[in-house]
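Consider the tokenized backbone below.
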């Protein structure tokens, strides 16, 4: 999978940071989303990113969003009043900042000529991208500001209207518009405007390109004319169609090597040279977001660099573990081959400061705690499907509520004799080193081993299912919920069936989380900003993944969401300027 993106180092100048530019550009696109949809030129499936033939090939990130007002209205129906208020706040700020405050009305000035989707891309800083041609007419400020730029591509369905608007732009509150030409393309750019200077060009009457710097405009024109655009980047044309979907709300692309170079140049979290070399094996991560009646669906694909020597093992053998756990299971994560998963983690994480836990620490921790070698004693026989699940306990009258759920690990073994020898070693360690009682017992007539702490509390249970599936239960005593195999399984429940995608199939892994029940019964650590608000709007999350071929992975994710009732109207530009209250509905 692609590495997480990190912030881009910026010099101290008037140029906004990457985060600010991303936010501003995202708001600009959102406000421009009030337009028309289902135009005659739209194809049944969207298997390409709008403007991919214009965006420079070394772009760090690109996202395409629909201009269909009905789709945006549909998006706003999801969530809670709190999440809707936050979304509306962003939409109002965007509309007023880039349209209303500059004298533009979307329905009057933009909707008549704009196409179905608009795309915005963020170019890499000059320090990690190929040098751009010398600008024809730029200022010192432009040169200093060209570290990280934005390119917006708006498809044109009525060239005449677009030409007229470009020829006679609205008068600027500060500065002035100037005209220049680059490679035969007329460019209109602002000059002397405090904070933001824009540059616009119409390519072949089909695409209006808007950027935040003259250099970025020239780079886009070069990419279009010289065929060095995103569309020609290694693996893009082959993999992006894999996530094609009907009427997508959004599509995105992340350039992994460029992101890795930026991370390596960051003074805060530099990547070691060996990690940078490993990440160069990866090329891209792309996805499509589609709105459905009960939530949001993502189809994703990641692929390796075409020149990389690394290949992926096409092994998709997961899909049975959800039938081994009971219907009340709160969370389940499964995979096809634990030994291979560990090997991939080691390959991409060793020495990587961005990894959650270093492989060396995991190996060392297991060795010091159990005296077992992780690779030799454990993973050597864990070559089959595995799962990690959280199963709530059924409270018993008069019993202490020490644990409200049990953590269950299951793995399909490839060599039971080796597995039993390793487990026997583990039993000896628990008995001799930690003074646990290791007791033989039976559950539903099947033999199990209990580890009981010196204080007499049942701590863990392990045993075998169907002859070759080993299990370990830690926490609440819920072994009787998996032994024997339950009649009412997680796989048979409506939440699982409606949340976990059925494709790709066959699969090498799945994930399910019942967010509503989990949040209601268990405290969760805070991992992201506004986590409580976001979780309160979510019902459940499901994911299915597979190795598509020797060069790419596929991912499908579905997020089931709650819906808002009694939606009101987004304030008009006049009202929003004088009112701080943000109602929770948008009006075309």
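A designed sequence for it:
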């Amino acid at each position: 999978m692609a590495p997480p993106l990190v912030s881009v180092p910026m010099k101290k100048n008037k140029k906004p940071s990457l985060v600010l530019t991303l936010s501003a550009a995202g708001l600009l696109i959102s406000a421009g989303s009030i337009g028309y949809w289902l135009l005659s030129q739209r194809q049944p499936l969207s298997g390409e990113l709008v403007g991919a033939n214009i965006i420079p090939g070394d772009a760090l990130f690109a996202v395409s969003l629909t201009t269909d007002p009905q789709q945006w209205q549909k998006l706003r129906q999801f969530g809670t009043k709190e999440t809707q208020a936050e979304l509306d706040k962003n939409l109002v700020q965007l509309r007023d900042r880039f349209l209303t405050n500059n004298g533009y009305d979307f329905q009057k000035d933009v909707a008549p000529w704009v196409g179905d989707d608009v795309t915005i891309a963020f170019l890499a800083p000059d320090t990690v991208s190929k040098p751009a041609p010398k600008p024809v007419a730029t200022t010192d400020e432009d040169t200093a500001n060209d570290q990280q730029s934005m390119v917006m591509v708006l498809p044109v369905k009525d060239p005449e209207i677009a030409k007229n608007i470009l020829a006679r732009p609205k008068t600027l509150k500060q500065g002035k518009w100037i005209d220049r030409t680059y490679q035969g393309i007329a460019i209109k750019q602002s000059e002397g405007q405090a904070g933001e200077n824009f540059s616009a060009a119409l390519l072949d009457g089909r695409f209006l390109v808007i950027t935040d710097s003259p250099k970025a405009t020239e780079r886009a024109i070069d990419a279009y004319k010289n065929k060095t655009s995103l569309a020609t980047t290694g693996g893009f044309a082959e993999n992006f169609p894999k996530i094609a979907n009907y009427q997508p709300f959004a599509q995105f692309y992340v350039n992994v090597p460029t992101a890795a170079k930026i991370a390596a140049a960051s003074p805060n979290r530099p990547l070691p040279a060996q990690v940078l070399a490993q990440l160069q094996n990866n090329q891209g991560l792309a996805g499509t977001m589609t709105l459905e009646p009960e939530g949001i669906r993502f189809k994703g694909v990641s692929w390796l660099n075409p020149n990389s020597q690394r290949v992926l093992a096409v092994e998709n053998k997961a899909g049975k573990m959800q039938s081994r756990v009971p219907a009340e299971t709160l969370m389940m994560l499964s995979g096809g081959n634990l030994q291979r998963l560990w090997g991939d983690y080691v390959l991409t994480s060793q020495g990587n400061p961005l990894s959650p836990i270093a492989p060396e620490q995991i190996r060392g921790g297991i060795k010091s705690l159990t005296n077992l070698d992780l690779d030799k004693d454990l993973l050597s026989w864990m070559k089959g499907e595995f799962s990690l699940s959280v199963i709530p306990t059924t409270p018993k009258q008069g019993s202490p509520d020490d644990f409200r759920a049990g953590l269950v690990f299951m793995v399909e073994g490839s060599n039971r004799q080796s597995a039993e020898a390793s487990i026997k070693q583990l039993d000896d360690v628990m008995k001799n080193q930690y003074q646990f009682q290791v007791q033989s017992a039976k559950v539903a007539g099947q033999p199990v081993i209990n580890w009981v702490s010196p204080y007499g509390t049942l701590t863990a249970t392990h045993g075998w299912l169907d002859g070759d599936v080993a299990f370990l239960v830690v926490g609440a005593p819920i072994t009787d919920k998996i032994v024997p195999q339950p009649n009412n399984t997680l796989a048979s429940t409506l939440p699982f069936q409606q949340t976990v995608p059925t494709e790709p199939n066959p699969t090498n892994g799945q994930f399910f989380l019942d967010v509503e029940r989990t949040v209601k019964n268990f405290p969760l650590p805070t991992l992201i900003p506004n986590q409580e608000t976001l979780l309160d709007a979510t019902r459940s999350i499901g994911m299915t993944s597979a190795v598509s071929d020797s060069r790419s992975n596929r991912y499908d994710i579905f997020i089931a969401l709650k819906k808002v009732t009694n939606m009101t109207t987004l304030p008009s530009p006049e009202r929003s300027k004088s009112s701080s209250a943000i109602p929770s509905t948008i009006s075309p």
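The mean pLDDT is 81.
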